[in-house]
Write the structure tokens for this entry.
Amino acid sequence: MTGPVAGKRGPTGRARGATAVDLRERNISAILRVLRETGPVSRSGLASRLGLSRSGMTPIVAEMVDRGLVRESGGQAVTRGRPPIMLTLTADDLCIIGIELRRDRIGYIVEAIDGSYLDGSHDLRTSIPHDPDQAAELVASLVLEAQQRTGRTAVGVGVCLPGEKTAGRFVDSPVLGWHEVPIASLVAEALGKTDTEIVIVDIAAAATLGAPESMGAALPVRAHIQFGPGLGMGLTDLRLDGGLRPESKGIGHVGWPGATARCWCGRTGCLDTILGMHHVAQELCERTGIAPPGEAAQLVTLVAEALDEDAAAVDAWTETLAARVAWTVRLVAQLEHPDVITLGGYVCQLDDRFEAALRSHLTPDNGIPSSMSVLRSTNDDASMLGVAAIAGHSFLSSPLTVLDAVRGGTSGHDAHRRAGESREVVR
Ligand SMILES: [Zn+2]
């Protein structure tokens, strides 16, 4: 995949042929981005940062206050001059929703437009429907649930799923049997809002943007390996397009030396048949003599059960799994030379024994340069966070167009004129 599949886009304010409305939107977009990155900023600080005159700022800020996007504070006279007027992002009636439709879980995360966490939920027992209309209905129901729970209106919806963008708005997902499915349009239709921007991104690609933003500057080229029912790999370079066009690179069907099992793709010996979640769980059960895993069995519960049965066999299984995961990490390291490789999916459920076994394989002797970081998260939310980040930036690039669509062109709602209390929860 070459980037997010965008739904309707507003004017991006390119200089060529830009109208006054475009320029206004571009300035508001720039101010919102600064506020999202740095938090409250003084008017004069913003003006110098954006190269605007202070008088040029006045009508722009007035419109942003009127639309409930920012709040001004400070500026009262004190004994030694006036403190600067500070602008703070508010928009406490708006949210960004990141949804994951995975084969091993369904979930969503809700963020305020400054990127702070508001709410989230995931369900390990459900998986993405193969029928595109049902998948779209599911997304619509999650959007409604998220809006209801937070009392906010979505101005950006991002969905990650095991699929890749083809031409235009279409998505291919061989594993779901999807060929050129216009999933973003189907979701918009299911929501009854054809002008809502729906961003669609592959799971592993989205997860490259799910790591803490603080990691970004030092480690700009990021790869992510998703260990799910199948394997996925995403790559992003934060120096290009602000890093918001992560690519999906399939690695699930790379051949594993000596493997002979038939893969769903029709070939034999694919990495998916060795490291796919079901295979890994089945191997654990065979080695330790516990009952074979059911469809929705979680590795964490199987490992706990297996440890009671035969701890030594669990250790041997852990060592084999760590060696295979390390082989995959080495493959990605050598193919892409990223600064950091993050690992997600079922490996997030494994304990310190796995971590130690994996670390012993990730050495320069094994082809992993010491300059390269390999990070395993203990939660498995990277793809939801990543797709929410992309949807958030998408809103910020055409905020007025989106606001006019969701609010029907009105401004100055009472709801966001309330003195700036907020329900944000620090993640
Ligand atoms: Zn295959």
